[in-house]
Write a structure and sequence with these properties.
single chain; about 260 residues; alpha+beta; Outer membrane lipoprotein wza fold like; wza like fold; 3 domains; five-stranded mixed sheet; three-stranded antiparallel sheet; 12 strands; signal; Polysaccharide biosynthesis/export family protein; Poly_export; polysaccharide transmembrane transporter activity; Poly_export_N
Length: about 260
């Protein structure tokens, strides 16, 4: 009787210790007595500073459009800038942090904000080609926010036509994390002028909203690892675990009787 009790107890331990719970699946949970209200206002991140491989859309406008036509690609339109055409007509930041701007030549933009690049282009145009009376106006935008997902969310490269995107929005756009993905330790591989760094964020904790990595940046790589129970082959629910254990017990019993009859 005692052996039977121990056996049943062990089965229940395996069943419920390996099942997924709300703590594994729910985003931004309130823990340790900290509520969303306690976090206060979630401030917007500091202005993004352009990195290598970023793509920029730069347009020059004036009262007389013919004066600035040489600076804008032929047939370029506002909508065209937000499509695949920008790959050919946009300005990619090279490995040295430069872009090749029509007539003005190479301009270094590495580490500059979008607003600073706008001021820099306007200043160079007024210095070299135009007078104040031309009333030129420059618009500079990132060509969407491109990021990569890999792991328990599916692999892919995504682009959102927004200046700012938080990681929850980015994951939702990529199809969300699977039930076997580890939401407690998301890896973000981020690009810096000196190279790449890996950062971690726990998306099951509401405090993640205060993390410096809550907002993604262009060219981020988001890696979602599998839960350990997936690596061990455990099921996601009690019924799946019961089916696995039943199959294992059946196999052991069959093996026992077969070897006993030999």
């Amino acid at each position: 009787m005692n052996k039977y009790f121990v056996f049943v107890y062990l089965i229940f331990c395996v069943l419920f210790s390996s099942c997924l719970t709300n703590r594994d699946l729910v985003y931004l949970q309130e823990r340790d007595g900290i509520t969303a209200e306690d976090l206060g206002l979630i401030e917007q991140p500091k202005p993004y500073r352009v990195q290598v491989n970023d793509m920029l859309s730069i347009r020059v406008k004036a009262l007389d459009q013919e004066l600035v036509s040489m600076f804008n690609p032929v047939g370029e339109s506002e909508s065209g800038n937000q499509s695949g055409g920008l790959y050919f007509n946009g300005f990619t930041v090279d490995m040295h942090g430069n872009i090749e701007f029509p007539v003005l030549g190479k301009m270094n933009v590495l580490g500059f904000t979008i607003a600073e690049i706008k001021e820099k282009v306007e200043a160079e145009l007024l210095k070299q080609y135009f007078k104040e009376t031309a009333e030129i106006f420059v618009t500079v935008k990132l060509a969407g926010l491109k990021y990569t997902t890999i792991g328990e969310i599916g692999s892919g490269v995504h682009t959102l036509l927004q200046d700012r995107v938080n990681i929850v929005e980015a994951l939702a756009n990529a199809g969300d994390i699977s039930e076997t993905g580890d939401r407690k330790d998301i890896l973000i591989i981020r690009q810096y002028p000196e190279g790449q760094r890996i950062h971690h964020i726990d998306l099951t904790d509401v405090k993640a909203m205060k993390s410096p990595y809550y907002y993604i940046e262009p060219n981020d790589i988001i890696l979602v690892k599998p839960l350990k129970r997936k690596a061990l082959g455990a099921g996601q629910t009690a019924m799946q675990n019961l089916a696995t254990i039943s199959s294992l017990v059946s196999l052991l019993v069959s093996t026992y009787f077969l070897t006993r009859n030999l």
